[in-house]
Amino acid sequence: MKAKLTFLVTLMVSFTLCIVVIGMVGVLMAGLFNEVVDNAEIFKLISPAFQTIVGGFIGLLAGVKLSHGETDKEPTP
Known about the structure:
single chain, mainly alpha, 78% helix, elongated
């Protein structure tokens, strides 16, 4: 049961991370090729947000994977 839950959480987090990264790259590319928008301002706005989102999701995935080895039962000798 715990392995199935860990798999589902990992799958949802990975899928959400992929959607967010694809969306942010799309917005970045649209802004880069728009003549009205200053490219330096795009990097100032998107870089911290991108790093925060990716770092948070990677931290969550690492925590899920590290806690996967823990069990509620005591090992039998």
